[in-house]
Write a structure and sequence with these properties.
Layout lengths: L2 H14 L3 E4 L14 E14 L2 H7 L2 H21 L3 E6 L2 E6 L4 H27 L9 E17 L2 E7 L1 H9 L8 E4 H4 L4 H4 E2 L4 E2 L2 E2 L9 E4 L6
Parallel strand pairs: 1-2, 5-7
Antiparallel strand pairs: 2-4, 2-5, 3-4, 5-6, 7-11, 8-9, 10-11
């Protein structure tokens, strides 16, 4: 079979085959699903943590310096995601994706975002400044969080495949993580409305940690926070 015939046959089979769905009780791994049209449905909260201005960093600094920043930031973000009950589902260059499920998924993800902000400032940026006191590098990052139903399927070819996460939460979280880093943590109104007070109020005296940013940035209501939460 020629390559063209193989591609034609695959796409035809994909669009003709009926989808099977099953309710998910956990965040799936790629190996949990076949490559056919079968998907797991989840009620989930998605978090993206993303370095800001990484292209500028790579162009303006040594390759080994950029690699140290990548490794340090992604390690801290991933460890915090896991510590807060999230499942790491993907790394993509300078960002990491985590998925949270369960009754406290929004509160857990929001706390996670605030802790990633703390670790970025108090650990990653602090250690870099200590090691390289003459460097002009300033670490900035954003975390985006949204919640929705997800339709999770396996995609790719045999020997090289992964999961595709279809749903508003995955798309919106990724877009929020690309906004202005003046707010290191962004959440949607759907997440905000489901937060318990531990992830909504902070400081002394207690006050709302989230600023209503309206709808102008994304076309739907979002909230931003400059607060951090120590680990």
């Amino acid at each position: 079979m020629s390559l063209k015939d193989e591609l034609d046959a695959y796409v035809q089979k994909t669009v003709d085959e009926q989808w099977e769905r099953r309710a998910g009780q956990k965040v799936p791994d790629a190996e949990d699903l076949p490559l056919k049209n079968l998907a797991v449905e989840l009620d989930a909260t998605v978090l993206y943590a993303d370095l800001a201005s990484s292209t500028k960093m790579v162009k303006g600094h040594k390759d080994w310096f950029a690699a140290e920043v990548y490794k340090s930031y992604l390690y801290c973000a991933a460890k915090i995601i896991r510590a807060r009950g999230g499942i790491i589902t993907a790394y993509d260059g300078d960002r990491v994706m985590g998925v949270f499920i369960g009754d406290s998924k929004n509160t857990d993800a929001a706390k996670c975002g605030l802790q990633i902000n703390w670790a970025s400032k108090r650990i990653v940026a602090a250690k870099i400044a200590e090691k390289y006191p003459k460097s002009t590098f300033v670490l900035k990052q954003r975390v985006g969080i949204d919640t929705s139903k997800l339709f999770v399927a396996r995609t790719g070819i045999r020997g090289s495949n992964d999961l595709v996460w279809v749903g508003n939460a995955a798309n919106n979280a990724a877009k929020l993580a690309a906004l202005d880093p003046r707010y290191p943590t962004y959440i949607t109104a759907d997440v905000y409305s489901r937060l318990n007070e531990t992830s909504k109020l902070g400081g002394d005296p207690k006050r709302n940690m989230w600023t209503d940013l309206g709808t102008s940035d994304m076309g739907y209501q979002i909230y931003g926070s400059t607060f951090w939460w120590s680990v």
